[in-house]
Amino acid sequence: MPKDNNIKSVLIIGSGPIIIGQACEFDYSGSQASRSLREEGIEVTLINSNPATIMTDPVTADNIYLLPLEKKCIIQILKKHKIDAVLPTMGGQTALNLAIDCDKAGIWEKFNVKIIGVDINAIETTENREKFRLKMHELGIDVCKGETATSFLQGKEIAQEIGFPLVIRPSYTLGGTGGGFVEKPEYFEKALNSGLHASPIHEVLVERSILGWKEYEVELIRDNNGNVIIICSIENFDPMGVHTGDSITVAPAMTLPDTVYQEMRNLAIKMINGIGQFAGGCNVQFAVNPEDDSIIAIEINPRVSRSSALASKATGYPIAKIAAKLAIGYNLDELNNQITKTTSAYFEPALDYVIVKIPRWNFDKFKGSDRHLGLQMKSVGEVMGIGRNFQEALQKACQSLEIKRNGLGADGKEVRDQEQIVDSLKNPSWNRLFHIYDAFKLGIPFSTIQDLSKIDKWFLNQIEELVVLEAEIEKFTLDTIPTDLLRVAKEKGYADRQIAHLLKALESEVYQKRIDLGIKRVYKLVDTCAAEFEAKTPYYYSSFEEENESIATDKQKIVVLGSGPNRIGQGIEFDYCCVHGVLAARECGYETIMINCNPETVSTDFDVADKLYFEPVFWEHIYDIIMHEKPIGVIVQLGGQTALKLAEKLHRYGIKVIGTSFEALDLAEDRGSFSDLLKANDIPYPKYGVIEDADTAISLSRKLGFPLLVRPSYVLGGQSMKIVINEKELESHVVNLLKDIPGNKVLLDHFLEGAYEAEADAICDGEDIYIIGIMQHIEPAGIHSGDSYAVLPPYNLGDFVIQQIEKYTKKIALALKTVGLINIQFAIKDDRVYIIEANPRASRTVPFICKAYKEPYVNFATKVMLGEKKIKDFDFKPTKNGYAIKVPVFSFNKFPNVNKELGPEMKSTGEAIYFIEDLMDDYFLNVYSERNLYLSK
Amino acid sequence: MKYNKKHPAKILLQDGTIFHGVSIGKKGTAGGEICFNTGMTGYQEIYTDPSYFGQIIVNTHSHIGNYGTLKKEQESGAPKINGVIINSFSADFSRKQADTSLQQYLEEAGIVGVAEVDTRKIVRHIRDKGAMNVIISSETEDEATLKKELEKVPKMEGLELASKVSTKEAYTVGDEGGIKIAALDLGIKQNILNSLVERGCHVKVFPARTAVDEIFGWGADGYFISNGPGDPAPLDFAIDTVKAILEKDKPLFGICLGHQVMALACGVSTYKMHHGHRGINHPVKNLETGKGEITSQNHGFAVSEESIKSSDKVSVTHMNLNDQTIEGIKINGKKAFSVQYHPESSPGPHDSRYLFDNFIDLIKNN
């Protein structure tokens, strides 16, 4: 069936603020869907409260509503626009839930809006455990055997039927308290008893244990004609027991024979066809018993998901884009493959490479949290490595994580404590992968590692091979290493830095040696078809093989460095900035090159830049791309700290940093020279000092006076920042801090108690400066700016204060010779403005201001950076109505043992925007009245 | 585990292009037509598919060998390929059900292989230059020797290979009393037989060159022409058999080479494709139902689109969505149909198994 021409206007529901479990992958799917529909001449209206998204940008949709995801806002939109259909499958569970609420309230019916892309009844079946079980039973598909028991006798009967090992899950307990695995019958009675008691309603689910079974995901697409294709199979490196969002995953599936894979494919198709009639993307999860290859279904999600974003990036098949077209009536055979442009969209991608996804956790932000991985997702972001083989992809993913490792192993950071390793193999946390490596290195037997971790032998074998290879390399020196061996190491993804560690040489020496030997990166295309057809889309990854497919043009090029994995303090805001940077550079006529390794992002959509290199934002990879492409310069100020910290090396290697120079960036980071600059310009700042040990900290504290703000330099999101009120606290924090970050220059600032905090973002061309926005925080100074409610424009700062802020912002921007964006943070006490810090780069608040004032400031700033435009060339016309509040959003509920406590270290995972007309608004008054509630030390 | 330095191996293509890799499988030298398969699963089924007889397979999937081998997942008694070219080869496997490693399996079957090759480069090369012959060796690196060996490899066009892989003696599978199917074995895959037997058929498999009267003598309810290797054009014996079956107006079903033979029997010509279709992700549209199916394919020859346009004997029922080539036909006014792809899959998706049901229905309604 061709396109449904009755659909002329579609509403897409976004996923709201970023929280753990629902991140920027939905910006990727939402913006793809929107573009896909607009291509068809459909008017797209979008609702999302998250201002840091590309989907809520005028470049993406026709009508944008930055409103809370609530029924009343949907009604408000439907009253204003004639909407023919709503597409609720692009905004995660949040959007689906809102669509269901509206459906129950009869809103869609009242406004004559058709729900497309999903079957509401299907959601019901997939969300309710019991309905799902019954449905699977009806379809003849095996699920995990289990039943709920409300009495001791019932529990024993169920156990007898399903056998051991089994799991007891008490109902309605947080974080699974009172439940657990029961290996043998003799432990059962006691466990059942405690489970029944732990549950407030004395109910437990007794389920067959499938802990240690192999876990898989299948991403499917279905059209209205009942055609179903599998886009990607994903194998979890971590077997059942770890949430798939917290598992290392690999695509395509590595250890499945065709017979088992096809059975899984059949089951997935049966499930998608069985749960309802709908056209769109879908995700199904399975467990496979390693003993006999039998398969059981775990769950099905009839919408695009985190995994479908990953599958899109892994295969090149844009799931959300195609799903949106299917939702408006197209069938798969009527659409083209978006990568080859000549073959059909109705096919199943064939990969000739491997991708490895590794989650990124931020446990350090949740002190006291349970760091074990289990059934609830805890990671805040992810990276993807693409390699020609598993080992290369794995090393690249490890290099992308930015956890101060150079890859997996060969960096002198291995753990040698056998007890710790053994415990970690069985009870996984964020570092199990590294501990598997350590275990092999320590000589723990393969069988023990397999028994404890239950990880498939093939994966373990691959890691053992790396350890063996390293031992071989260590027999040589830089001069004696055979070419073949060096080549093998590179083929398996080792960074020059890792090889240098093994050979006891310098990274630069290894680099030179391999270049001399002709061991160079080539770039291969992600083309959906294993090279069977010619592909037109410039989506590349590197490997060490013979043929290079990325031909450098002779156009003038600009590289934009991405921000790597999402984490607290550096999230979707920077991806927003990167995307706009790319688009602006392209408008200026440059060929744009994007480098990033975060599969959730819009910047890694192959439609965004002229060329996409899906590579770690890690020096060696960046440098090789630069050597290959020879761009005129690199934009580092849009990709957060990840990109910014590469400025120094770029500068050192004579590569042009676009916009503000490296010297200026460095000056702003170096507190000493920065304060000198402030002093010279007669700008006030809190009394401070720099210390490198606890002794000097104490003596300095006597000069500065308590309270003190302790902050390490070169960190992200205020990591390890703390306010201390006495010498004892100071001493213990400094000691702890230097243990974690040895050699750090720690700053002690006199903390201005009870001060207001404000920040300003500005664009400067080196001569003129334009302040794009000044925000005043609702909370007092001391709470990280990312965790504060910020009001744009300020709500109670007098003209005198505003004038000081404006004056200082201009002075600093010019003194730093800023070319591009700058963010400055202020503390205001007794009408006097002090500078807390200045960051000559895109800040977290830039997208917020863009959305509130409806002007494309990143676009402007990029043109200024490139020297294409001056401030005076722009006609700034911000839309200023009332106030916009930036609302921080937290994920504390994922960590039941952690209290919500705010301080100088950022804890929030996302943000929303909320518009108010005046300061008598109830929402504002309520937040204002609670402003001191969570401040801690 | 110990670090193993691997034995070198060499690949020489007909156009003189050389690749280097390491030896896997049996040490030796092997030649054949080079072709690539894009399937990400099912290497064992591919290697044992008789349609690949005499060919050197390039697996585009980056890892091969991961799940070992299992005897009951073979498509014939042993590998039929002449050699393999692989990117990353795993001699170790993790599947508990598996019998042996792929290394042991290839060695025992005497199959020569080369691994650690930029297989993607080879695929792009073949995609641009078209099908050609190749020689692979882990015995000699001497180019002159390899060239000489390469010259001995016959050209695929005009080559009759079906009778070489066909059974020597007729045999039956499935319980007696079921629907009687006479299958002409041009290189039949095990799963075709399984698919028929599962549907209650009693199948007698006849050698390729069986006289047509002998086949008719068995008194089958339906006839089947199998897949197989080589060029369909020289298969005059099979073409004659098909003509005779059509004459009798018996239910008839053909797969792959069998499909080509059926087209030839109706006067529709076939041609050698640029580099063929080999993989398990090829989209086919059923023109009669409007539905699509993802299919398993393995063919280097195809039924001519031009020729079919001017034929009033044959109608197109299935079409490839990537390149619009002919994927299925029916013979007008007869109870005969055929498909270019493999509905029995193995390896590959099971989307097209309905064709076996259609065949059974055709027989039952006869």
TrEMBL record, chain A:
<dbReference type="GO" id="GO:0004088">
    <property type="term" value="F:carbamoyl-phosphate synthase (glutamine-hydrolyzing) activity"/>
</dbReference>
<protein>
    <recommendedName>
        <fullName>carbamoyl-phosphate synthase (ammonia)</fullName>
        <ecNumber>6.3.4.16</ecNumber>
    </recommendedName>
</protein>
<dbReference type="InterPro" id="IPR036897">
    <property type="entry name" value="CarbamoylP_synth_lsu_oligo_sf"/>
</dbReference>
<comment type="similarity">
    <text>Belongs to the CarB family.</text>
</comment>
<dbReference type="InterPro" id="IPR005480">
    <property type="entry name" value="CPSase_lsu_oligo"/>
</dbReference>
<keyword id="KW-0547">Nucleotide-binding</keyword>
<feature type="domain" description="ATP-grasp">
    <location>
        <begin position="133"/>
        <end position="328"/>
    </location>
</feature>
<keyword id="KW-0067">ATP-binding</keyword>
<dbReference type="InterPro" id="IPR011761">
    <property type="entry name" value="ATP-grasp"/>
</dbReference>
<keyword id="KW-0436">Ligase</keyword>
<dbReference type="InterPro" id="IPR005479">
    <property type="entry name" value="CPAse_ATP-bd"/>
</dbReference>
<dbReference type="InterPro" id="IPR013815">
    <property type="entry name" value="ATP_grasp_subdomain_1"/>
</dbReference>
<dbReference type="InterPro" id="IPR005483">
    <property type="entry name" value="CPSase_dom"/>
</dbReference>
<dbReference type="Pfam" id="PF02786">
    <property type="entry name" value="CPSase_L_D2"/>
</dbReference>
<dbReference type="Pfam" id="PF02787">
    <property type="entry name" value="CPSase_L_D3"/>
</dbReference>
<dbReference type="Pfam" id="PF25596">
    <property type="entry name" value="CPSase_L_D1"/>
</dbReference>
<keyword id="KW-0677">Repeat</keyword>
<dbReference type="InterPro" id="IPR016185">
    <property type="entry name" value="PreATP-grasp_dom_sf"/>
</dbReference>
<dbReference type="InterPro" id="IPR058047">
    <property type="entry name" value="CPSase_preATP-grasp"/>
</dbReference>
<dbReference type="InterPro" id="IPR006275">
    <property type="entry name" value="CPSase_lsu"/>
</dbReference>
<feature type="domain" description="ATP-grasp">
    <location>
        <begin position="675"/>
        <end position="866"/>
    </location>
</feature>
TrEMBL record, chain B:
<feature type="binding site">
    <location>
        <position position="230"/>
    </location>
    <ligand>
        <name>L-glutamine</name>
    </ligand>
</feature>
<keyword id="KW-0067">ATP-binding</keyword>
<comment type="pathway">
    <text>Amino-acid biosynthesis; L-arginine biosynthesis; carbamoyl phosphate from bicarbonate: step 1/1.</text>
</comment>
<keyword id="KW-0028">Amino-acid biosynthesis</keyword>
<feature type="binding site">
    <location>
        <position position="257"/>
    </location>
    <ligand>
        <name>L-glutamine</name>
    </ligand>
</feature>
<feature type="binding site">
    <location>
        <position position="301"/>
    </location>
    <ligand>
        <name>L-glutamine</name>
    </ligand>
</feature>
<dbReference type="InterPro" id="IPR006274">
    <property type="entry name" value="CarbamoylP_synth_ssu"/>
</dbReference>
<dbReference type="InterPro" id="IPR017926">
    <property type="entry name" value="GATASE"/>
</dbReference>
<feature type="binding site">
    <location>
        <position position="298"/>
    </location>
    <ligand>
        <name>L-glutamine</name>
    </ligand>
</feature>
<keyword id="KW-0665">Pyrimidine biosynthesis</keyword>
<keyword id="KW-0547">Nucleotide-binding</keyword>
<dbReference type="InterPro" id="IPR050472">
    <property type="entry name" value="Anth_synth/Amidotransfase"/>
</dbReference>
<feature type="region of interest" description="CPSase">
    <location>
        <begin position="1"/>
        <end position="179"/>
    </location>
</feature>
<dbReference type="Pfam" id="PF00988">
    <property type="entry name" value="CPSase_sm_chain"/>
</dbReference>
<feature type="active site">
    <location>
        <position position="342"/>
    </location>
</feature>
<dbReference type="GO" id="GO:0004088">
    <property type="term" value="F:carbamoyl-phosphate synthase (glutamine-hydrolyzing) activity"/>
</dbReference>
<keyword id="KW-0055">Arginine biosynthesis</keyword>
<feature type="binding site">
    <location>
        <position position="228"/>
    </location>
    <ligand>
        <name>L-glutamine</name>
    </ligand>
</feature>
<comment type="similarity">
    <text>Belongs to the CarA family.</text>
</comment>
<comment type="subunit">
    <text>Composed of two chains; the small (or glutamine) chain promotes the hydrolysis of glutamine to ammonia, which is used by the large (or ammonia) chain to synthesize carbamoyl phosphate. Tetramer of heterodimers (alpha,beta)4.</text>
</comment>
<feature type="active site">
    <location>
        <position position="344"/>
    </location>
</feature>
<protein>
    <recommendedName>
        <fullName>Carbamoyl phosphate synthase small chain</fullName>
        <ecNumber>6.3.5.5</ecNumber>
    </recommendedName>
</protein>
